[in-house]
Amino acid sequence: MNPETDIFAIDHQVDYHQHLSGYKDDTMTTNNNMISLLQAQRGMTTVKVMIGIEPKPYTYKAPPHLDLQRDDTVVVPFGKDNHRKVGQVVEVDDFADLELDSGICYKWVIDVVDTQKYEELLAEENYIRDQLRRAEAAEKLARLAQNSGINFDQIKTPALEKK
User: Fold this and answer.
1) What is the spatial distance between Cα 112 and Cα 74, in angstroms, rounded to a whole number?
2) What is the pLDDT of residues 69-117, one digit of tens each?
3) Which residues are registered as beta bridge partners of 83?
4) How far apart are CA 53 and CA 41, in angstroms?
């Protein structure tokens, strides 16, 4: 892939800068930098977020109340139209990591996706599925015992015994 001629690489570079910066006005950039510095002094930090198959993480501003951690799932605005995207936090900065001379207008993390209830639902489904499989196996064994006259309780299986 040649970054100077490959359309995807060029589009990605343009998209990356459009994602971070919609401004080329120096006054607007200076104001945004001053605002970001003030916000950093008041507890705002930055996080690096991987979004889908993007090749590198994007930096987002993070308010302190979100208390973001590495591997958190977050919703962020992305691209020039600020479409909502789900990403994963890959780094949490101790202090805002801003490239103030870059002309980047950093965007905010919208919120953390709380996956606890979702994970509980999946665990519950797996538990029920496991119980149904066990019940089905026990039922099949009972039918086999009844049809064959074999008493499975009398069959010894010492290799399977817990020690």
Assistant:
1) 4
2) 999 999 999 988 999 999 999 999 998 998 888 878 899 999 999 989 9
3) 78
4) 33
**Shortest CA distance to 100 belongs to which of 56, 40, 50, 43?**
40
* Same domain, yes or no: 123 and 93: no
If asked whether residues 17 and 93 sit together in one domain, one would say yes
Work out whether strand 111-112 and strand 83-92 pair parallel, antiparallel, or are unpaired: unpaired
The per-residue pLDDT for range 121-131, each reduced to its tens digit, is: 999 999 999 99
Q: How far apart are CA 111 and CA 39, in angstroms?
A: 17
Residues 43, 100 within the same domain: yes
User: Across the chain, how many H-helices and E-strands are there?
Assistant: 3, 5
Mean pLDDT, all residues of the chain: 83
Cβ(29)–Cβ(67) below 8 Å: no
